[in-house]
């Protein structure tokens, strides 16, 4: 096509002016970024070469102000597949990444075809509404909050990696997590549960040991699944927690040599009952199979879904609340608070929290009512003896003075 006297401005066979500018190299594809148009932003066709030239200069300046970002051609799916997902997978634990995969797919399906720069406030708001709407995804408050937060995180990373100048999701109200109430068993509930288990049966013996250890140590579900017999120091009566289990199938699992947090790498002191229960199970298990795992009936590790089914089965038999597997950790915290009267610092260390503040954040509600004994102990400690008559000259409001006088005289 014939070139005009203006740089990057051309005229086609129909006499229409247009510009075609080069904007550098796309960071994803490695290809040259070009932008071509016959109309200005207002949709009006260029009537002169100068108009096209002015628009081309504006486009170049916008690009330079964005520091050469490649957001003209990259779609959200390209960004996710080539930039965010590789970063995220390397940043988090494998179990966390696996659990987030479905959510990432939701985001890609929703925004994948859009140029990342073209995602608008309206798009983000519609997504927020869809997550919560009964006619939309109708997710729980917690899951919707996590999904929306993940979208926000991906766009924030796009800003950090210089694909965007700002995070459009910041203009939309976030979704609160809501109040999450995790059911747990009291000591009485737990006693009812274990009373329904017949440890003479090999598999039920394992169920008993598993429930006992979780209830009495407060280990996280994946920490318990990863426990080996060499995690126990029989002499010191201690359990070292420093692994997590990533379970995909009975033949495809990984015992990771770290816990959810650095503070999760800890040593838990075991009571004599727990030590004896573990010794009995170790002997029983060794007759049937050779296993490194404490929670195993055939040598293979136990998976989380199996633990959930065991809890559900015995909760029904004992007629106690059905709880999640992680509810056993909450049960342990409740037991320490309400039965043992343990300090928040001790509980924090035992649960593997990084600070007592984290413990209070999650379990402060369990302390409700623990001051009843204090209130009972306070009763009668202060001798109550008041003056028979006033020792001050009252100079206040006359109406109040008269009322006080009348009350005293009646008395």
TrEMBL record:
<dbReference type="InterPro" id="IPR011010">
    <property type="entry name" value="DNA_brk_join_enz"/>
</dbReference>
<feature type="domain" description="Tyr recombinase">
    <location>
        <begin position="180"/>
        <end position="377"/>
    </location>
</feature>
<keyword id="KW-0233">DNA recombination</keyword>
<dbReference type="InterPro" id="IPR013762">
    <property type="entry name" value="Integrase-like_cat_sf"/>
</dbReference>
<feature type="domain" description="Core-binding (CB)">
    <location>
        <begin position="78"/>
        <end position="159"/>
    </location>
</feature>
<dbReference type="InterPro" id="IPR010998">
    <property type="entry name" value="Integrase_recombinase_N"/>
</dbReference>
<protein>
    <recommendedName>
        <fullName>Site-specific integrase</fullName>
    </recommendedName>
</protein>
<dbReference type="InterPro" id="IPR002104">
    <property type="entry name" value="Integrase_catalytic"/>
</dbReference>
<keyword id="KW-0238">DNA-binding</keyword>
<comment type="similarity">
    <text>Belongs to the 'phage' integrase family.</text>
</comment>
<dbReference type="Pfam" id="PF00589">
    <property type="entry name" value="Phage_integrase"/>
</dbReference>
<dbReference type="InterPro" id="IPR044068">
    <property type="entry name" value="CB"/>
</dbReference>
<dbReference type="InterPro" id="IPR050090">
    <property type="entry name" value="Tyrosine_recombinase_XerCD"/>
</dbReference>
